[in-house]
Amino acid sequence: MKVYEHKNPASLRIRSHPWIDSASDPTHRYYDFRARPDLIRSSLEDMQEWRAYPSTETFYRLIEWLNGSDSVFESNDCAFDGATANTNPQFSERLQCSGRLMILYRELALNLSTSQTRWLTNAIAHALNRTDPEFEYGVIGATVMPVRFTMAPGPPERQIGQQLMLSFWAWGDNERDLMTNLDRTFRNMTIVLQELSEKIRRSPQSST
To answer: What does the alpha-carbon distance between residue 139 and residue 131 come to, in Å, rounded to a whole number?
Structure first.
């Protein structure tokens, strides 16, 4: 599966964790999915329109796992833009879809370490490149985002850390093919994140 370093202008803006509302849409609110996993399927509005497709269930299960007891990660934000006309000349398919998934360590101190975030970014990229190599119709972009972790001790300048944004794209000639390729993309992401979580859990020093 293809993965690359995604340059995103928004990555220069410092986000907060936990955040209160979204600058792009004031109706969006932060939910602590670790404390309220029951809200995952009802509060992720972007996916509701597409719930008839297996890709939506796969995405819900990924978010539930990320914020569940078996994961060393968590997620505090995601988005999905739905199906649109393809604008990427590298693909001949008629439709594309895209979105994002934010990933951070559950252990707060690890998010304040640049080396830990760099390790996670590289590990995800290497693992995705080795996963499902024949798959051409899904792509992941990795972006490191600066974050102020408001629950971290110390003055504001010592609360600055990072989290990882995984942007995703899929393509297809029709809506069903598009959503099938999106499902395959989500399944590959799930495999990689679960493998890395287990690796970190078994050997915490492997990420240093």
So the answer is: 12
- Is 119 in contact with 207 (CB distance < 8 Å)? yes
Tokens found for residue 154? 């110390």
Rounded to 5°, angle at Cα 136 from 130 and 141: 70
Element (H, E) at 64: helix 54-66
Structure tokens belonging to residue 62: 């990924």
**How does pLDDT run across 87-137, given as a tens digit for each residue?**
999 999 999 999 999 999 999 999 999 999 999 999 999 999 999 999 999
